[in-house]
Write a structure and sequence with these properties.
Elements: H1 5-23, H2 30-44, H3 56-66, E1 70-73, H4 78-87, E2 95-98, H5 103-112, E3 121-124, E4 127-130, H6 134-143
Parallel strand pairs: 1-2
Antiparallel strand pairs: 1-3, 3-4
Helix pairs in contact: 1-2, 4-6
Length: about 140
């Protein structure tokens, strides 16, 4: 439920603002514009934007077999969003672990980041890289094809 709190709050705020604008007699186009804007922001900050997350143990097993990077992330993280959007379609080749859903994933991130849950943390061949440049991650994904 935790990953959905921010998107739900955004949707609620959009609905309240749109209802308030409609009740105050604002122009007819304003309430839908408020709502559409908040819906877009809510979707971008939801888990829907990311590939389906898997458990850290499963990601490690798959990465050992295919050599693809593991990306530890959490919903609402702007750096995770930047990485996800800059990877484009290639993002599906990586193994994505939501640290809010998987305690083992959160522990793995803390282990390599001095006790902090700093994301995105990308693990390539057992070596962790905290908030790497998206172009570098794209290169890593391209090299694993």
């Amino acid at each position: 439920m935790r990953p959905w709190i921010l998107p739900l709050v955004l949707l609620l705020c959009g609905a309240v603002l749109a209802a308030g604008a409609a009740l105050s007699g604002a122009p007819g186009a304003a309430p839908p514009a408020f709502l559409v804007g908040f819906v877009v922001v809510a979707v971008v900050h939801s888990p829907l934007v990311f590939p389906r997350p898997i458990r850290a143990t499963e990601a490690q097993r798959r990465s050992a077999a295919d050599g693809h990077p593991i990306v530890y992330w959490r919903p609402g993280c702007t750096y995770c969003l930047r990485l996800r959007f800059r990877l484009g379609r290639r993002a599906r080749a990586a193994h994505w672990v939501d640290i809010w859903r998987d305690p083992a994933g959160a522990a793995a991130v803390r282990a390599v980041n001095d006790g902090n849950e700093t994301v995105p943390t990308v693990v390539v061949h057992g070596r962790a890289h905290t908030n790497p440049d998206p172009s570098w991650v794209r290169e890593q994904l391209a090299a694993r094809r």
